[in-house]
Design brief:
Layout (H helix, E strand, L loop, with lengths): L1 E6 L3 H10 L7 E7 L2 H10 L4 E5 L7 H11 L5 E6 L4 H9 L4 E4 L4 H41 L5 H10 L6 E8 L10 H19 L6 E3 L10 E6 H6 L4 H15 L4 E5 L9 H14 L8 E3 L7 E2 L2 H17 L2 H14 L3 E2 L2 H22 L5 H19 L2 H20 L2 H15 L6 H7 L4 H12 L3 H19 L4 H7 L5 H12 L3 H10 L1
Parallel strand pairs: 1-2, 1-3, 3-4, 4-5, 9-10, 11-12
Antiparallel strand pairs: 6-8, 6-9, 7-8
Organism: Clostridium beijerinckii (Clostridium MP)
GO molecular function: DNA-binding transcription factor activity; sequence-specific DNA binding
Pfam families: HTH_18, Response_reg
């Protein structure tokens, strides 16, 4: 509803306007009335008003003076429609110069009023849509800069930008909100998870109201991150006359009533300024890691770490050595038990995220060395590129033991394949696949699934055999087939491209030039001339 204030010194005019039409039918709500400009200002100070319908000639403060005062002193963008008699036409012209929306001549006619209101409503809706779209754009940019600061990449520019939108106090905490999909019987698609993240984010923004800039979607390089960030500020609790824990509990209970899925809250350590929010974010990540085995009340505070013994490097090394041994043996049950034991111990120690990172790197380095010993000619960096970015670094960011388990089990299988697989038989099958299906959408992922072999390992042995990557080999094979068709037929270039597996003709031509140093047409002409 568009909120309207009627301002006229004659009570019967005000009353007549109120009953002249069904305001709600046209999308309006009369929220107040005033007899002059001064009374109107008092109404503006206490009420949300979108439109003022005001007479020009009034005592104490007339309509023109009211318009000038609002334009010069009020932050609210209020629109005006002025009422005028014929003998006040000069006043009306002055009002138009003050950028009023419209004017209506007295006596007020119903049809004329409806026409003016409908025109105003159309413009109001367009303006609100533009404003809403701009707000979304501004928030996206803000979230981008805020994420830089959260992840420790602050600079004068991004700090100044976010401070222009948010006046942070001297007591802040970063809170991670994780939607709990783990207890669902049916698997949930990535699209569904992303959709629920957006719904939660929108609901949180509504709950925060004018403080919605304290919510943020945590952006990082991992597409499987569905967390929502929340910068707690002591000012928020004060506004609700609550202490910190009451406020966070109130947030949890309010969101739980409207969310489809349950969720967990991880509260980082207190910092004194937005410049240090990255410290609080890291500690919230640790709280998430520690809480992996303590979901009692769904809220975990990093502060619970205080008073605990430090998780030493030697302690971490003991667990990593045990895990390396179990991975090397490909003992799935013992791998899981080892990780569970390690993560359970986190509840007894004060966890340092950098120490966990050191231990993960130690694990990675040793596993690479083991793989190198099993196959000295294997390209371990190529193999680990896939595994590292899909799993290992995510363990640090996501704080989940399940991802460490997935990685460990996958790498145990990889080592087993290095020991046991005779790659020549597999490569013969792959070679046959290429010769028979080169024109189809072949990929390492598809072939690895078909022949039950790790895709990273398949890429290694293929390059070892043919001295080129699978992708380059497939492109060369397709271009050779295209060359034969160019020599033996007069088919269009795009048809030949499609026949050998290229849906994009430009890409086909680029590849052809890259390998043959001629365009397909030039290649064909050289044989026609002969």
């Amino acid at each position: 509803m568009i909120k309207v204030l009627i301002v006229d010194d004659e009570p019967f005019i005000r009353q007549g306007l109120k009953i002249l039409i069904n305001w709600e039918q046209y999308g309006y709500e009369i929220v107040g009335e005033a007899s002059n400009g001064l009374e109107a200002i008092k109404e503006l100070e206490t009420k949300e008003i979108d439109l003022i319908i005001a007479d020009i000639k009034m005592p104490e403060m007339n309509g023109l003076e009211l318009i000038e005062y609002v334009r010069g002193n009020m932050l609210k963008e209020v629109k005006f429609i002025v009422l005028s008699g014929y003998y006040e036409f000069e006043y009306a012209k002055k009002a138009i110069k003050c950028n009023v929306t419209d004017y209506i001549l007295k006596p007020i006619q119903k049809d004329e009023l409806i026409k003016v209101l409908c025109t105003f409503k159309d413009e109001y809706i367009k303006r609100e849509e533009l404003y809403a779209a701009q707000k979304i754009k501004d928030k996206v940019v803000y979230d981008g800069y805020l994420n830089e600061v959260i992840h420790g990449k602050s600079n004068n520019f991004n700090l100044e930008y976010i401070k222009n939108y948010n006046n942070f106090s001297d007591e802040l905490r970063y809170i991670i909100v994780e939607i709990n999909y783990h207890n669902e019987c049916e698997s949930i698609s990535e699209d569904e998870k992303r959709k629920e993240q957006q719904i939660f984010y929108s609901n949180m923004a509504l709950w925060l109201g004018d403080n919605y800039y304290n919510s943020v979607i945590n952006i990082n390089q991992y597409t499987e991150s569905y967390d929502i960030g929340f910068i707690y500020d002591k000012r928020l609790a004060k506004e609700k006359r609550m202490n910190e824990k009451e406020y966070i509990l109130d947030f949890k209970m309010s969101m739980r009533q409207i969310q489809k899925y349950d969720f967990f809250i991880y509260v980082g350590q207190k910092v004194n300024c937005i410049e240090d929010i990255a410290i609080s974010y890291k500690s919230a990540t640790i709280a998430k890691l520690v809480s992996d085995f303590s979901f009692d009340n769904n809220i975990t505070y990093y502060d619970e770490n205080y008073g605990k013994k430090e998780f030493s490097c030697d302690k971490g090394k003991q667990y990593m050595d045990c895990l390396i041994h179990k991975i090397e043996d490909n003992n799935k049950e013992e791998i899981i038990n080892c990780i569970d034991e390690m993560c359970n111990s986190f509840k007894e120690y004060k966890i340092n995220l950098d120490m966990i990172k050191i231990n993960i790197d130690y694990l990675l380095c040793n596993l690479l060395n083991i793989a190198k010993e099993l196959d000295s000619e294997a390209n371990q960096e190529e193999a680990m590129q896939y595994i590292r970015f899909v799993s290992l670094e995510q363990i640090i960011r996501a704080g989940r033991a399940n991802q460490l388990k997935s990685f460990s089990l996958e790498f145990a299988e990889y080592l087993s394949q290095l020991r046991q697989n005779s790659f020549q038989g597999v490569l013969n099958q792959i070679d046959k696949e290429i010769s028979e299906h080169y024109m189809e959408n072949l990929s390492l992922k598809y072939l690895s699934e078909k022949y039950y072999i790790n895709s990273a390992y398949l890429g290694q042995i293929f390059k070892k055999q043919y001295n080129v990557s699978f992708k380059d080999y497939l492109n060369e094979y397709r271009i050779e087939k295209a060359s034969e068709l160019l020599k033996r037929s007069d088919e269009k270039i795009y048809k030949i491209a499609e026949k050998v597996g290229y849906n994009n003709t430009d890409y086909f031509i680029n590849k052809f030039v890259q390998l043959k140093e001629k365009t397909p047409l030039q290649y064909r002409k050289q044989f026609c001339c002969k």
